[in-house]
Write a structure and sequence with these properties.
250 residues; alpha/beta; Rossmann fold; 2 domains; 6-stranded parallel β-sheet; 9 strands; binds nicotinamide-adenine-dinucleotide; binds zinc ion
């Protein structure tokens, strides 16, 4: 593994334009469970039953009780982990330009990164289904489920449910930065949720190196990735950052 830390550090320091694609695994060490993979929510229930827009519209009370209530509590407590801090440092060093994230937890912003494409929106705001009024998630009162706006309409999170489309400007900009980077770091994503999973293919097709970080192999590992650093995001990024700091101090 040490050799791979060194290789990744060398590659990143030599690169001019690095983009990171992050998924739910990135925030696991912050206490937010992923959907797929070990310990994922899919081991307990099928997120499609709850995280799909049709499910929400059909039975908002159920989706609020099973998914959103818990998510609000977990996300409000969560803090950036070593992986988030590492990417913030990588931006500060001028190496990392943009993060494309599938996460909705806002932890990249909290860690200090400034150019983040939130592919699936975020959980920081809710919107009334009837009058469209927005409300910050931390101000949503959960004593009655589902929470309602003063007009009586039900609040929905502003994130992108399964079955909804990615905001076109986010998709276009992701495709653009993917096609322009010389390294794409793919971290903590099972790379099966489209169209996010397509970004590494665009990057690879345009000549970028793909460096994957994940405790498990993914569909990208054998086909697209140049190499995989197998392990938890925080531990692996700490290892790479230590090598980068060594390189830069010489
Ligand atoms: P996923 O749940 O499908 O896959 C998680 C991936 O993370 C797996 O490949 C797993 O092996 C890996 N992983 C687990 N622990 C890890 C760790 N400590 N370090 C690095 N990798 C780890 O996630 P996905 O591909 O991002 O897709 C699911 C969708 O669900 C996302 O698009 C996202 O919108 C949503 N989601 C978001 C959050 C969040 O905001 N934190 C959490 C759960 C789900
Ligand atoms: Zn309203």
């Amino acid at each position: 593994m040490n050799d791979l830390f060194k290789q990744a550090a060398n590659d990143l320091v030599a690169a001019k334009n690095v983009v990171a694609l992050t998924g739910a695994g990135f925030s696991v060490e912050s206490g937010i469970p992923p959907f797929r993979g070990k310990g994922g929510l899919w081991e307990k229930f099928n997120p499609m039953e709850y995280a799909h827009i049709d499910a929400f519209m059909k039975n908002p009370t159920k989706v609020w009780n099973v998914l959103l209530k818990g998510l609000k509590e977990i996300i409000e407590k969560a803090q950036p982990n070593d992986a988030h801090k590492g990417l913030a440092r990588l931006e500060e060093l001028g190496i990392l330009k943009t993060i494309i994230t599938q996460n909705i937890d806002g932890l990249h912003q909290k860690a200090g990164n400034t150019d983040i494409i939130e592919f699936h929106g975020n959980f920081a705001w809710h919107r009334c289904l009837d009058c469209d009024k927005r409300c910050e998630t931390e101000r949503i009162d959960l004593t009655v489920i589902p929470p309602r706006c003063e007009c009586g309409g039900i609040y929905r999170p502003e994130f992108v449910f399964f079955g909804e489309t990615i905001p076109p400007q986010d998709l276009r900009r992701s495709e653009l930065v993917a096609s322009q980077c010389d390294i794409m770091l793919v971290v903590g994503t099972s790379a099966v949720v489209q169209p996010a999973a397509f970004m590494p293919l665009i990057a690879k097709g345009a000549g970028a190196k793909i460096i994957e970080i994940n405790p498990e192999k993914t569909p990208l590992t054998a086909s697209i990735s140049d190499y995989l650093l197998m392990g938890k995001a925080g531990e692996v990024i700490n290892g790479i950052m230590a090598e980068i700091e060594k390189l830069l101090s010489h």
